[in-house]
Amino acid sequence: MGFPKNFLWGGATAANQCEGGFNEGGRGLANVDICPSGERRSAIIRGKVDDLFCKTEWHYPSHEAVDMYHHYKEDIALFAEMGFKVYRLSIAWTRIFPNGDEQLPNKAGLQFYKNIFHECHKYNIEPLVTISHFDCPVHLIKTIGGWKNRKMIDYYLKLCKVLFTEYKGLVKYWLTFNEINMILHAPFMGAGLVFREGDDEEKIKYQAAHHELVASALATKMAHKIDAENKIGCMFAAGSAYPFSCKPQDVWEALQVDRENYFFVDVQSRGEYPSYAVKALKRKNCMPLMQKDDTAILKSHPVDFVAFSYYNSRCIASEVDPANMAAGNLFASAKNPYLKYSQWGWPIDPLGLRITLNEVYDRYQKPLFIVENGLGAMDTPDENGYVEDDYRIDYLREHIKAMKDAVELDGVDLIGYTAWGPIDLVSASTGEMKKRYGFIYVDKDDDGNGTLARSRKKSFYWYKRVIETNGEIL
Ligand code: BG6
Questions:
Q1: Does 333 reside within a domain?
Q2: Separation CA 140–CA 411 (nearest Å)
Q3: Which of 107, 266, 361, 398 could hold 274 in an S-S bridge, CB 3.0 to 4.6 Å?
Q4: What is the CATH number of the domain that holds 100?
Q5: Do 296 and 214 form a contact (C-beta atoms < 8 A)?
Q6: Average pLDDT for consecutive 10-residue bins of the chain (474 residues)?
């Protein structure tokens, strides 16, 4: 029993958090390149953006990141040494179309990813490609306002066509948008949305989300047409919402939070706006404008599999007590007294992963893929860069056990698991380097200092064994 024989073990990264080389090979400027680290970051990723350019006094962690742009061969060799079956990475849109609206793609950018895919196949690693992971050309933000403009669908599909054609036979697993529900919480980072005084932010966000949903369905159609082997997934930030108590109001509020996140997958997987969303959006005057074919497009092209990130569950109280809140991926929620917390205050809830897997599978009945999970923690390397990261091993072990239970005991159809940040990379929420997830340590600090040398942590050897034994030895 245990995990299926062909289970896809691996790791996941995003271009802006690991590649660097932000102005090399003809790459254009992207939204993520103008998100600095430090205290301004949070407001900027939420859409409070004053200037759409880089300032000399701020530090922009995506510009160099961990320089995978120049280290990819070494890094993929290390993934192969751990036995990876799959490597999830994202395409930097502006490497392919620097402004987003060019007629022809940038050859150097296309070649860069082709090299990566060849490198993966050399080691029998299957690439899993996120087409858009917090990525939007700045030029398209300046000229058309990012995803709030329907024209983005055409630009996105132009990118997709190039990718599906160029990488036919090299890539068959694709995700259309990373954590599509993040648009509600980090709209600049997620969709290039900039808000001005007096904007109806919620209305704009749902209009932009609608454009992404249509784009995702049309990309699915295109991918299937170009290559029948292609498998397309949606991807959302998951983590079940628990009622803070059995008070019916708490249960009701928790249901609302789950629905806010499932809304996206309901559309992408079941193919239509769920009735609860139609009612609620109309009530708030946030129902997006649609064109007459949109309903048919969404219905005709649902995804093949459902992928998600899981870091933590959430706990929802109908009466919010600001003194009793916990951080977490996406947003803060009530502090769950039964859980332990990470150094960044995120709840640690392995059983929550089994609960989430079951909920998602019950709801969609499609193959599932966990494409992010991990512990962001501070590491102290010895003089050789070795880190005794037992805390990370403990977190992953417990989550993989929970995942195994979901597969073995509950019958969830799970096709793979890619741990987040197998190599240390820049944190999306804080821009820090010290929030590390990797099995591989990278010598770089929050101010951009360091040799960029890579070294294996204790968890590297542990994960290698997990993969070798197909999850039998944890
Ligand atoms: C997910 C994102 O939200 O969580 C990743 O898809 C991100 O890009 C990850 O890095 C972990 O969050 P953070 O803020 O710790 O980097």
A1: yes
A2: 44
A3: 266
A4: 3.20.20.80
A5: no
A6: 94 98 98 96 95 94 97 98 98 98 98 98 98 98 98 98 98 98 97 97 98 98 98 98 97 97 98 98 98 98 98 93 81 90 97 98 98 98 97 98 98 98 98 98 97 98 98 96
